[in-house]
Structure formats: structure tokens, C-alpha cells
Design a protein that fits this description.
Layout lengths: L2 H8 L4 E3 L27 H28 L5 H8 L4 H7 L5 H20 L14 E7 L4 E7 L1 H19 L6 H4 L1 H25 L13 H7 L6 E2 L3 E2 H7 L2 H20 L4 H19 L1 H4 L3 H4 L5 H14 L2 H8 L6 H31 L12 E7 L5 E7 L3 H4 L3 H15 L10 H25 L1 H9 L10
Antiparallel strand pairs: 1-3, 2-3, 4-5, 6-7
Helix pairs in contact: 2-9, 2-15, 5-8, 8-15, 10-15, 11-12, 11-15, 11-16, 12-16, 12-17, 12-19, 17-19, 19-20, 20-21
Length: 483
């Protein structure tokens, strides 16, 4: 254990009551009933129906897309047409799908155990010799109850160790073939589902029996909503195993690039070469993954950690939905090895790079503004902002600033716009022969537009009239003069 971690434990590292910095001290109430933020206590009928529909159909959506590639060469419409004509049945489709195997159980168990080992037992050292990287023990954002949790940020180190071992095996040790993930893809899906449901159920029961912090629990009175959206804000086992940070970042996102590498190896095995489309998908998605881990400390201030409770939505979603549907482009290219023209390839690369630049620059501006408390320059000028206040669950009134300069003056969620451009680039790399690779851009559009609405509802509840002043100053959400 590092010196930083020992010191953090001694200072109640897991969480602590907020030590208010200058300008964030709880003050005597200055305005009438400042808003309090957090997830809703009550569930309307539309939300309940949506939750039940997702619980019922999301696992089948994942199975459908993976099955379409395995049995129908990635055609989305063919299985539906065969079912409609009576040429096949749901039972026959199910019977043709590979079942759970002990080989897959061993692979998945070793994988998750290895990631837990890296997460819990290998304190970060990369921040000591990589300039600009922020790792080690870091503070999270204030929770609705007014607490601040501490986290061991070592995701980049875990990613580097994992991929170094993968490459060493592929070139020197040969313990397993580099196509091992593709070769066991559907049996591994059953393992991921079992893990996702087990983790979600454990977190649900834990919230009732032994919550990490009862003040940050929210019970809506509806069992389906509680199970899906979560009850506990930051469920933990011990002082350092944080469910949200681990399952959001590991094992799904660490696996993302390994899955793509396995697809690339399978394409090489089947056709004797790797297409430029496969290389583009690997490179562009690897940039996104590495950006996530490079900025993991910043991620502690995002909606997933700051607002979402931990339930099936995150537990199952990170174990199953993310690794299986975010990698559809690479899976498609194994079955359809598209070789793009130079013009098409350059256009995809340009779209992906520009999208990433907007995504990263927008997030950097916000992070810089937060770290310097506005004492910085954005686009060569002193940033403008809206002053606002909010109330935490412990009754303290706190002050914050909402940035209205740079990309944050263009649209309120312009980082999502860059993210969508990158998503479209991944899909466009697959050509235009099938619909399946484009599920990702459709899903990301729905996800991020919904997240815009959800985030703004919470901000409106949190900041009240100050949020209205902010939306008047920055009227567009994603695309200037459109939306």
C-alpha cells in the first residue's frame, strides 16, 4: 500500500464530511428555500413503465444483435422476416445459440478477479512519472448528503498492465490465442449477464441490510425503480472497493480495447489481412478509452458518479450492455471485412478526430474553470459565468459557478456533440451495407439527449432560479440555433 493510501486511510479516506473551502462555506440562508438536488423520491407512471420495459427487453436486445451476427451475418432484418414468414421460430434461434461453457466461466472469472486485484491491490504509481496525469488518492464530488468520498485512481495503470500482458502473450508466451474473446463471445455473454444481475441484486439487498451511508440512500417505494436505478449512492465494500467506480471503468471499459484487438486478430486469421476499417475502429475507440482513463479523476465529477445511484442500470449495463453493444462495429467487420477507399477512410478519421477534439476541449475548459475557480483564460479571454447556490442534504448552503464561455457558451452540452461526432465516425467506418453497425449512433443519440434532459432537470432542482438565468445566457443544448 502506498504512502498516499495509508495517509488517506488515517484521515478517514473512504468518505468525510465536506471540508468547505473558501467561497464554499455553509452560510446562513440567503434566499428562500434553495433547491436541493438528487434523484426523485417519487416515480411517475411513464418512468415506471419505461423501467419495467428496459428490465424486460434490454437483455433481449443485446442477445438479438449478437445472435444476428452469429446466425445471420449481421443482418438485423433477416431474423425478423424469417419469424414473420414462419421459416424459423424463437425456440430454434435460441437452440442454435452457443450455451454457457466451463471454458467461458473460467475465462470470465479470471478476468474479473484480475481486474479486482489490479484495482484493490496495486496502488497507482503512474502519476509519479507520467507528466500531467492525475492518479492516486483523489476526492470525489460532494454527494447530496454533503459527503465527499475518496477514490484510488489507478485505471490507466490497470489498462496499461492488462494490455502489456495481452501483447506479451500474443507475441511471446502464447498462453491463449488472441482470438479467445471472439471465439467464446456468446458463452462469455451468459457469464456477463450472470455477473451483472448478481452485482445489481447484491447492491439492492445491501441498501436495505447494510448501506454504506444511509443518508445517501433513496427509496421510492417502487421495487422495480429501486432495483433498476439503484438505492445507494456510493455502495462500497470495505474502505476502497467502490461499486460505481469499479464497474463503470473496469471490467467493461478495460475490456473494450481488448475485445477490438480480438476482433482484429480474428479478421487476420480468417482473411489473411486486416482492413483499414478495422484499424480505424480500433484506433478511434482506443483514443476514447485512453481518454477515459487519463481523465479518470475528472470522471469523478461527472453525472455517473455525481448523480446516478448504483443499480441494475449501471451494474448490468456496465457488465453486458457496454462491452457487447459498444463493440458492434468491430464484430461486424469480422463478418464483413470492409476495405474503405482512401477518401472515405480520411473522412472517417477527420470526423473522429474533430469530434474527439470538441469532446476533450469542452471537458478541459470546464475542468480548468473548476480547478482555478474562474481565474483562467478560455479562448484568450477571462471566462464569464453565472453565480448560483444550492443546498446539500446536511442543510448547508453552498455556492457554485456555471461557465458561459468557450464551448460552454456555444451550447450547454457541447461535449455531447463531440461525443456524437465520434460515435458517427465509428459507425461510418463500417460502410453502408448494413444497419447493425449504426445502432451505436442511434443509441448514443437517445442516451445523450435523454441525459441532457435528465441532467438539466436535476440542475433546475439543484440551482432553482439560477439555472433559469444560465439557460437564458446559453439557450441551446447540443447544436447552436437547432437544439
Amino acid at each position: 500500500m502506498s504512502v498516499e493510501r495509508n495517509g488517506a486511510v488515517a484521515m478517514e479516506a473512504t468518505r468525510r464530511r465536506t471540508q468547505h473551502s473558501a467561497g464554499e462555506k455553509p452560510q446562513v440562508e440567503e434566499r428562500e428555500q434553495p433547491a436541493q438536488w438528487g434523484r426523485a423520491w417519487e416515480v411517475d407512471w411513464f418512468s415506471l413503465i419505461s423501467v419495467i420495459a428496459l428490465l424486460l427487453f434490454a437483455p433481449f436486445i443485446v442477445f438479438y444483435f449478437v445472435m444476428a451476427c452469429d446466425q445471420y451475418q449481421c443482418s438485423v432484418s433477416q431474423p425478423l422476416m424469417e419469424l414473420y414468414r414462419g421459416d424459423t421460430t424463437l425456440l430454434s434461434i435460441w437452440a442454435r445459440a452457443p450455451s454457457l461453457t466451463w471454458a467461458a466461466v473460467k475465462i470470465y472469472s479470471i478476468w474479473v478477479s484480475f481486474q479486482i486485484l489490479l484495482y484493490m491491490c496495486v496502488p497507482d504509481v503512474t502519476h509519479k512519472f507520467i507528466p500531467g496525469y492525475v492518479g492516486g488518492v483523489q476526492d470525489g464530488a460532494r454527494t447530496p448528503a454533503g459527503l465527499i468520498n475518496k477514490y484510488e485512481i489507478n485505471g490507466l495503470q490497470c489498462w496499461l498492465i492488462t494490455h502489456a500482458l495481452w501483447l506479451a502473450n500474443a507475441h511471446y508466451f502464447h498462453w491463449f490465442p488472441p482470438t479467445i474473446i471472439f471465439d467464446n463471445w456468446i458463452p462469455l455473454m451468459w457469464c456477463a449477464n450472470i455477473t451483472g444481475y448478481a452485482v445489481s441484486t447484491f447492491a439492492f439487498m445491501k441498501a436495505y441490510c447494510f448501506p454504506t451511508n444511509s443518508e445517501d440512500c433513496k427509496f421510492t417505494g417502487n421495487i422495480f425503480y429501486n432495483y433498476m436505478m439503484g438505492i445507494e449512492f456510493n455502495p462500497r465494500v470495505g474502505k476502497w472497493f467502490d461499486f460505481k467506480l469499479f464497474f463503470n471503468g473496469r471490467p467493461g471499459i478495460v475490456a473494450w480495447t481488448l475485445i477490438n484487438l480480438s476482433y482484429m486478430a480474428k479478421q487476420q486469421e480468417l482473411y489473411g489481412h486486416v482492413t483499414n476499417s478495422m484499424i480505424l475502429v480500433n484506433v478511434l475507440q482506443a483514443i476514447y478509452v485512453l481518454d477515459f482513463f487519463w481523465n479518470e479523476a475528472w470522471y469523478l465529477k461527472t453525472i455517473d458518479i455525481c448523480h446516478d445511484h448504483f443499480g441494475w442500470y449501471l451494474g448490468w449495463g456496465d457488465c453486458v450492455w457496454l462491452p457487447y453493444l459498444y463493440t458492434l462495429q468491430g464484430l461486424y467487420l469480422v463478418y464483413h471485412p470492409v476495405q474503405l477507399s482512401n477518401t472515405h477512410a480520411l473522412a472517417v478519421l477527420a470526423l473522429g478526430v474533430v469530434g474527439y477534439y470538441i469532446f476533450r476541449s469542452t471537458n478541459h475548459q470546464k475542468d480548468l474553470f473548476r480547478r482555478t475557480e474562474g481565474a483562467c483564460s478560455i479562448w484568450g479571454r477571462k471566462p464569464t459565468y453565472i453565480k448560483c447556490s444550492y443546498r446539500s442534504g446536511d442543510g448547508g448552503i453552498h455556492h457554485s459557478k456555471l461557465l458561459t464561455s468557450g464551448f460552454w457558451g456555444v451550447a450547454r452540452h457541447f461535449n455531447y456533440t463531440g461525443d456524437l461526432m465520434g460515435s458517427l465516425a465509428y459507425c461510418s467506418a463500417c460502410g453502408f451495407g448494413h444497419l447493425l453497425p449504426y445502432f451505436y449512433i442511434v443509441y448514443m443519440t437517445i442516451l445523450l439527449v435523454h441525459r441532457c434532459v435528465r441532467d438539466e432537470h436535476r440542475c433546475s432542482s439543484k440551482y432553482g432560479k439560477d439555472w433559469t438565468r444560465y439557460t437564458d445566457a446559453v439557450p441551446y443544448r447540443l447544436i447552436p440555433r437547432m437544439f
